[in-house]
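pinging the channel bc i need a second pair of eyes. not urgent but kinda urgent?? the chain im working w is below, pasted from the shared doc
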Amino acid sequence: MNLLLPVLKIIPLLGALLAAPLIPGLINKVKAAFAGRRGPPVLQLYFDLFKLIQRGAVFSRTTTSILSAGPLLSLVSAGFVLLFIPWGPLPAPLAFEGDLVLVVALLGLGRFMTVISALDTGSSFEAMGASREVQFAALTEPSLLLILLALARMGNSLSLSTIFTALPPDQFVACGPAILLVGIGLTIALLVENCRIPFDDPNTHLELTMIHEVMVLDHTGPDLALILYGASLKLWIMALLLANLFTAWAAQAGVLPASVLILVALGLVAGLIGTIESITARLRLVKIPQLLIGAGACGILALFLLSR
């Protein structure tokens, strides 16, 4: 069994790398169902990535090598985060005390690379989107850190692999209010980190409302494929954190096999995102900081409840 453990740790990682583009496909299917349409295929992102890889790239004479390095390094940072995310009770491929903080730093690094590649274009339009992205990040990253610290207090560890296996099933109900608050905060963080409604609209083309999409307007071909694939990996990571939060206790209790529980939970998270995007509209920019501060408040309140 000890010899098989390293192999078992790698299988979820490989599965994530292959299956991450399915999450946006499921979200689009849910949104299409709400609108009464058939919608694009669940595998549409795979088709788009294959098509983009085959195309050439066009670069402005204003840009430097930063424009190409940004998408690649952003994707690499998301890949490194995957190494620290456990698959239910199965530990992550890499784990150490304090990897929780590194996860937040790597997510911030990916955003930073996207921002500087947008600034490298010399376009004031893309600089506007980068400015808004940084403004949101200044509130999102502290809130996400507070939420993860509440998780750390719950599991008495700063390692994600330990946190999701440290809460016994009989204590899940006792910690229920704190877990619910952490879940709400994580959901808000998921939406803003992945540029989803009500913070941003990945399908918008309105100049005054574009945030993430405006930052990648100058990327074409393989560079755009890296951005789309990296975005799907980031969405998978945040969805997996949320899935682990609500399924780790059930996996320990033996309700269902852990892999089945997490796959079902990932599908439910995709359905939740699609539902939120179908029944809500984008918030005004002045309202977004209030919601992000609310996510941080959920983390602080969860910490208070767990400290009693």
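so The chain has one domain: 18-306. and The radius of gyration is 19 Å. — does that match what u expected or am i reading it wrong
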